[in-house]
Amino acid sequence: MENKVITVTSPLLPSLDDFLPYMQDIWDRKWLTNNGYYHQELEKSLCEYLKVPYISLFTNGTLPLICALQALRITGEVITTPYSFVATTHSLWWNGIKPVFVDIDPMTCNIDPDKIEAAITPKTTAIMAVHVYGKPCDMERIQAIADKYGLKVIYDAAHAFGVEVNGKSILEAGDISTLSFHATKVYNTIEGGALVCHDENTKKRIDYLKNFGFAGETTIIAPGINGKMDEVRAAYGLLNLKQVSAAIESRHQVAVRYREALREIPGIHVMEDMLGVRHNYSYFPIFVDAERYGMSRDELYFKMKESNVLGRRYFYPLISEFSTYRGLESAKPEYLPVAHKVADSVICLPMHHALSPDDMNLILSIIKNK
Ligand SMILES: *Cc1c(COP(=O)(O)O)cnc(C)c1O
Question: Residue 85: CB within 6 Å of ligand 1?
């Protein structure tokens, strides 16, 4: 292959031979969507795999965020992080909620619990936090603040598929957590997502909301939306679930290899594993200290690109810098110094289950021989 390009990720795909009989079965059943057989099977299997009692499948990872806010009747202002994928904040915007950005913790890149209380106003109704790169937020402290002020907590867990702390799923934290099963994520259903809640009533309400609000043939309980996952992607998801643990282990090996090589390079900072955490190695961010490394983040990023190594600057620019949000008081850079510093220094290296040792060698040699 000429001009081989090393991409930041590569999708986990089930084998086509395994997939075809499932398709034949769907063709035979002629039931394509609306809580079909494979949809129900995938919800059951995901509950088991993720160790959670209630899960609702969605057609992507953005609609569960939007529906979570609807289900919890969140209004006014929500405290959130500028260091995430834009969908996190867009879900607030689509609900007419004002996002209030709070700076991040430089160690985890997650919202800094020390800075949350100062951002609370009488209009605050919830905290929307993100387990960035699948690294768990400080869930205990966030819950303590939420309890003190009577706030709901929603976790955007799009990066955190399968992540556990001391054997417990992090999806148990807060009132609702959401997942994305987009093709670029650790576990994918091509497009897809899910919402995790903690009681049957909420699950029921969510399932109504994702189906236009229908609670029966003629009953609409709320202005719902269409967020349903179809049978084809549910079947694909069942097959992918069987190989996701092995894929996470392959990612783990990549992370070990990367870290061993990169720890020794002055000016390159990597994230280490956290005690008691089962990580999913969804991303491999490095942080470039231009002065110590002798080259800026962007210089390294474009140098990699010249060699067909496509890292990604996740998350640059910050959400608070986009035109929709930058006029907000809380979006001012002076309130978000850590987030800006991190966003200006990060590159996510190629990280996936099938990254070859040769590709890793090439990537590492570019970073070493600057
Ligand atoms: C991928 C992602 C989403 C959105 O998921 P989609 O399935 O692409 O709609 C939301 N939040 C974060 C943090 C993400 O990385």
Answer: yes
